[in-house]
Amino acid sequence: MSSWAAVLFRRDLRLSVRVGGSALVGVLFFLAVVTVIPFGVGPDLNLLSRIGPAILWIGALLATLLGLDRLFQADREDGTLDLMLMAGRPLELLVLIKCLAHWVATGLPLVIAAPLLGIFLNLDPVATGSVTLTLLVGTPALTLIGAIGAALTVSLRRGGLLLAVLVIPLAIPVLIFGVSAADAAIHDPVPFLTPFLILCSLSLIAAVIGPLAAAAALRFAGD
Amino acid sequence: MAIWDYANPTRFLKLVQVVLPWLIGLCVITFAAGLYMSFFVAPEDYQQGDTVRIMYIHVPAAWLSMMCYSIMALSSLGTLVWKHPLADVSAKSAAPIGAAFTFMALVTGSLWGKPMWGTYWVWDARLTSVLVLFIMYLGLMTLWRTMEDPIKAGKAAAVLTLVGALNLPIIKFSVDWWNTLHQPASVIRMDGPTIHPDILWPLLVMALGFTLLFFVLHLMAMRNEILRRRVRALRLRAASAAQPGTAAATAQPAE
Q1: SS3 of residue B55 by DSSP
Q2: Hey, of A144, A162, A172, which one would you mutate to test binding to chain B, going by the most B CBs within 10 A of its CB?
């Protein structure tokens, strides 16, 4: 990693964990969503353990969407984004690094929190492990796809809601394969590896499409 | 290239003026023939009875919902790659029409599903992907509505349309996967028996009628959008003339 990339990565990470950043709010939201589900479907532990992987995945998706609107907006408000656009660095790479820093600040805590929340949902160790593993592989894809929405809505004042509407259809494949891989490890109608590898490939595809499209959108929003 | 001759909106409007009456006439004739064939000539299905006639609305609408997205994707390519001034007008005008056809396919599908499957909605792979397509249409329309500057909105929507076009096959594939995993083959498939010519002909005529209807509506919507942008540009100019102190209004390329 060249030096400017490392500097940018550290800067973004620092900004999001310090006061005014929103790194840990996502985890709290994740906890709140998982807590509220049993009130909706009832406290039946068998049912909860059956739908547990799905709850964790939907919670992670919502928590990721919640944090995404700040990905470029804060930089736009104080003018940093314009400097980045004019810096002459490849914008796609810049977006990728920002997404990476954003994921480390908001996505990784969700992955770390997942085993703990699995206890609430009566997940056995195998299920917990598979959900955590799929979240680890899948949440970067959510962040990278979400970056497109964040870049498109960067100039809007209340873009968060629109961002979620735009991103959710694109995130459906990630959700499907994340949940099927986690389910496959528990009930095995299909081998675990098939959906898991497809999930990995979705993340890789998102790592290409996301920065390309987000950089294009940022360029158009800038001029 | 012929398409560049119509980069000039005035020339395009002239072409629309010439083509539109013929297109409308052709559309009306095709619909008259198609509706007559599908309601009076085409036989009842031996199992489904008269409800099979929903197909003559449902299937063309579903085809058009996809064709419309393809046209939007091509137009977006025109906006981003060739910067054709009418491409984003075309994409913007196509979105509500596509959403309407998708909605029609969903509604007729669920009306057809009630007597056939006993329920208005099943989470079948096809239905689910069409629903996702519908949400994407609505999202695109919302994106256009939230941005004030039509040129910027057009570029943003073009990026999203192209990402959606790349993603739609992936979504379709994953929904198929999800569906076979959860409820294997509970739904009657159309592709089992080959379609009898008595049914196929009305269907093809109706499909042609729907396609013509799409082009009529699309050309009308494009014409209206161009006029709307001209009105906007004139208003901006009038406002800046009334207050010379403020910044001069920028001219829009597609006026």
Answers
A1: helix
A2: A172
Chain A residues within 8 A of B156 when measuring between CB atoms: 152, 217, 220-221
Write the CB contacts of B191 (distance below 8 Å, at least 6 apart in sequence).
none
Closest CA to B129 of B159, B170, B83: B170
Q: Please count the other Cβ atoms lying within 10 Å of the Cβ belonging to residue B92.
A: 23
- In this prediction, residues B41-53 reach a mean pLDDT of 73
Top pLDDT among A189 and B246 is at A189
- Assess if residue B1 is contained within a domain: no
Q: Does residue B177 belong to any structural domain of this protein?
A: yes
- Structural contact between residues B159 and A216, judged by C-beta atoms closer than 8 angstroms: yes
Range of the domain at B25: 10-182+197-239
Measuring CA to CA, how many Å separate B138 from each of A69, A81, B31, B223?
20, 29, 28, 22
Total count of domains within chain B: 1
Residue ranges making up the domain that contains A84: 3-222
pTM: 0.86
Main-chain dihedrals φ then ψ at residue B49, nearest 5 degrees? 65, -140
Q: What ipTM was predicted for this assembly?
A: 0.86
Mean pLDDT of B97-104: 94
Question: C-alpha angle with apex A145: A144 to A150, nearest 5 degrees?
Answer: 90
Q: Under DSSP, is residue B49 helix (H, G, I), strand (E, B) or coil?
A: strand
State whether residue B146 sits within 8 Å of chain A by CB: yes
Tell me whether residues A220 and B139 touch, CB distance under 8 A. no
- For chain A, what is the domain count? 1
Q: What residues of A are in contact with residue B178 (Cβ under 8 Å)?
A: 176, 180
Cβ separation of B175 and A205 shorter than 8 Å? Answer: no
pLDDT higher than 90, residue A145: yes
**Does B81 reach chain A within 8 Å, measured CB to CB?**
no
Contacts of B181 in chain A (CB under 8 A): 180, 189-190
Give the nearest partner residue to A169 out of B135, B156, B178, using CB atoms.
B135
Q: Closest approach of chain A CAs to the CA of B123, in angstroms?
A: 14
Give the C-alpha separation, A208 to B14, whole Å. 43
Q: Of the candidates B139, B143, B178, which has its C-beta nearest A176's C-beta?
A: B178
User: Rounded to an integer, what distance in angstroms lies between the CA atom of residue B77 and that of residue B70?
Assistant: 11
Q: What is the pLDDT of residues A156-178, one digit of tens each?
A: 877 788 899 899 999 999 998 99
Residue of A nearest to B154 (CA): A220
Residue B248 falls inside a structural domain? no
Among residues 42-101 of chain A, which lie with CB inside 8 Å of chain B? none
* Rounded distance between C-alpha atoms, residue A114 and residue A136, angstroms: 10
Per residue in B189-211, pLDDT (tens digit) is: 455 556 677 778 888 888 999 99
